[in-house]
Amino acid sequence: MSIKRLILLAFSLSLLVSCANKSMTRYEEIAQPLEKKGIDATIKKMKDEQDDLYGSNTEFLYYFDLGCLYHYKRDFKESAANFAKAEQIYEDLYTKSVTNEAAAIVTNDNTRPYRARPFELLLMYEYQILNYLAMMDVDGALVEVKRSQIAMNALYQKDQEKVNDNGLLRYLSAIVYELDGSTDDAAISYINAVKAYKEGKLQLPEEVLEFVAEGLRKADREGDLMTLGTQVPGITPKATSIREAGQEIIVIGYGGHSPILGELYMSGTFVSGGVMNLYYKDGETGERKSFTLVAPPVSGAGNGESFHIGFSLPEIRKLQNRVDHFEVSLDNAPRLRPEKVMAVDEELQQNMDDEKTTTITRTAIRVILRTIAAQKAKQAMKTDNILLNLITSLGTDVAQTQIEQADLRLGLFMPHSLYMTRIPVTTGQHKVVVTANGSNGETVEIFEFDKINVTKGQKVFLIVPSLR
Q1: C-alpha distances in angstroms, 228 versus 39, 188, 191, 217?
Q2: pLDDT by residue (tens digit) across 348-379?
Q3: For residue 82, which of 41, 53, 67, 268 is within the disulfide window of CB 3.0 to 4.6 Å?
Q4: pTM for this structure?
């Protein structure tokens, strides 16, 4: 081997070793300091350093994260514009054939364009619907409702065995249909909302059930609740009051910060066409655990040939959240407590569980293919010089180990949980105070809306973010 080839090998290796996982850099650079620097400073940094922080393969998340921040800032027009760009990127990636999947086989999943996890996509549609409702644009909200239904249908067709539905999204869809005067469509969305909550891990909120029952009574479809095995409320005082009054204030609270992803190292034995025995250290308990999966045959490996493998996978890292719930006071009246209507941490956990086996198997096969390729490369570069052979061998082994990085890409500004309550009001001016509280009832943050004007038949949406 020439000195030039050695220098090239050393240089390439140094690039691989120094290449940090961009997802962790994003979190440390913009998500972690959000509370101290504020939304405006975070948006500016994202825009100034888009290429370094995100790059072309994570373009969806760039616009998704911007959409979230503008939504919390209550700049609903700018939020909608950024989410629209994220939607277009998702649709382009979903409908056209993927031409760069081969790169992921020899490197890692980060080389593939990020396509959004199912719950991120559905959360984006929820934010979009709320953006348009907050701008009192029912037609715009209706477009997003229909787009979300197409996305959910596609997700179900793609993975029949996995639950890719969302009770809150179905519930918001019903509200939009009611505003549009589409009673039958609203009733169907109400029914689907109940189904989605029953399929998910979050219990059907009582207030949601009350409005579902009221909406189905209006459509003469109350019996559909019985077929779902759901107890129909005898009375619906709040829903009835809002229907009779015609106007309301709807508070949407975003509490805490969703988990992030870190790297979990696994190692073990892969037997081509046999089994895969893997070991790892549990991040929460510290215990060493193991499990066994079927190991499919790998091209280039003999049936029954065994390999020792080691690789990193994404692992949920929970953050310490100060916000446990919200309380709302209208015109100095006693406080009421919005219910949790979506748990983002549970959605992420479900998605990780759904994808676990596929991700492990794909990553293990990739490592095996690189191992086989590395052995062939060593043979091809073998010389009569023992020292050069040693350097080549070590360099090849280190390089192929450093190439593997877990795909930690995830939306950075999602809340831990979403909360919601609907308040019947008279026409005129109102004062609303929303308090974000900790688990012991301590005040974390206070939001005051002093002069909210409500006209006849209007639904006013108040967006309250406390990602602490």
Answers
A1: 43, 13, 8, 15
A2: 999 999 999 989 998 888 888 877 876 665 46
A3: 67
A4: 0.89
